[in-house]
Amino acid sequence: MATKASLSGKTPKFSVFGHTVVIPTGEQARKLFFFSRTLDNGEGFQILTGHAPRIEEVMENRPANQKRFALFIRRTHSLLHRDRLEKLIPELFSDLNTHMNSWPKNDQVDPFANSFGLMFHMTMRSQCAREFADDLSTLHGMGELLRFWNSEQEFSFNNAFTSWAPGSVVQKRKKAIGDLYGILTDIIKKRGDEGRCENDAFQFMLDQGDTIDDIFPYMLWIVFIGTAPSWVVSYFWPLFVLRKFIFSSAIVANWVLMFLKTHPEWDTKVRNELQSLCGEHCPDLALPAHVRFAQIPLDAWEGSTPVMEAVITETVRIVSTEPAFRRNIGGDVELNGLKVERGEFLMYPFGIEQMNKDNYPNPSTWNPARWADPAKFEHDRSQGKFLGWGIGMHPCLGMRIAKLYIKFTVALFIHNFEYSRVDRSGKVYHDVPVPNLSDTHCLLPKGKGHFLHIKRKSES
Ligand code: HEM
Prior knowledge:
By secondary structure, the protein is α+β, with helices and mostly antiparallel strands. The chain has a single domain (about 1-430), classed as CATH 1.10.630.10.
């Protein structure tokens, strides 16, 4: 709706929960949206919670929130540093392997639930505590505790309205967050009591002098993005910014698999690329696949995978069409003759650019060949045509690790499994799937073919 309105050339303004939301159109408006310092992305997201505070409260809490967010950004930068990522590769592949081994050998699965599980596991490994990532049952327990999957499905504007009700989703989340705080405190205490140091993100933060009250929000921001009740939003606002990114990694990985299935020429190219990487860095065929993949160095995963880069970029172009949000925390601004007042919200749907036929001919067609020239990606970002990883003041901090998560998942999955897209009754679908953009949680394909039938290959 927003994309259509915006493509019509008008600058629509509408009301949500009593707040005014403007959809900017045109180049000048896009520049303002992504580059202005007085349009705040965290405050923008609060429109989704139905509990956006008054602008006076925002400004009062702003210094403290900015301080917390600055710490969050610093820690994320350090934790995603290349030296650390390089060391993480074997552990991430081991986690993926453990996870995939727990799947059925020959059955129908919900691919979205499975890939959320994988991304959750890898995120725990790379940005949380070893205690959570080392053991599948602990990991599942954490997911269960926080109603990780369910709360995501249950999150809705209705829930925001009924947040006060005992037994409401919001109240359950409140309890879960309290329990989680307890678990985290225990872990830190136990490490202290045992004089034990671990090589993980928690330890890194502890070594920097961070306290539990710094680490807890960090963990929530990074991982349990979908579980926050609205009462913590003003404190934990990046939860709502980031929630979609953990899910985005899972969604993109799924769509890569589905598109590869319907485009055999690209499937072959990806397999050839992986084979040549393994051939160069780990030719020992006697080793299990996850061990071989783990021996491919970070530079090669990042710099010698042009086919996978093109496949991921094209998939993000098509599936990452959700809007970004901002709130005007400065003075009134004018957009195409329309006044955006202080405190009002703005929403920019990425589809305006990414599904625009002037930018991408036949925009609905999945065609990684568009990205044959690796320079095109940065060129299109600089021109504001490709917004899938953000631009301007708030580019994605996790692009690098998200791409690795997706490449690792796809590599091990297509090596280990044969698969086909099926519906609930097992009927196979061969057509190119189309994302249902109204399904903002899982972005399932339109129609009934939501499932994958997976069959473990005998030699893996
Ligand atoms: C396929 C997966 C992902 C996609 C498509 C994606 C996309 C994006 C986009 C479009 C933005 C800008 C939003 C805006 O302008 O309001 C963004 C920002 C951000 N992303 Fe990602 N992201 C992904 C994964 C991740 C992961 C795994 C992390 C965590 C490590 C992450 C961390 C962030 C952060 C911290 C920001 C906000 C930066 C800021 O406010 O300055 N992203 N991402």
